[in-house]
């Protein structure tokens, strides 16, 4: 399970929208394999050196996306992040696109939620708002 604060999720979505406005749209969620298809607000859930969400607006030269690490899988705060990532995300690097509209609706359905949890299995992903 990976946990992200609702505030951080909103910040990543907002940053993606701002980057898109300033730099000509959103990056392709299909990794460039389907140009012009589904280029809309969202975040990427990325597993590589830790697990994090990343904004998806197009970027200016030298600019970087906003990156927010999962509480359990941040290399700066958890010395066992690699083992945690391997156990719950898998050993290989990976990326999944999460639609911003879906995330905002999910968070809005539970107004007292403070965090989102993302749970992955071999063939599914579930996203649940929680209150801490």
Automatic annotation (TrEMBL):
Native species: Ancylobacter polymorphus
Pfam families assigned to the protein according to its UniProt record, in alphabetical order: DUF3085 (PF11284)
Top-level taxonomic group: Bacteria
Protein name, as recorded: DUF3085 domain-containing protein
Keywords: Plasmid
InterPro entries: DUF3085
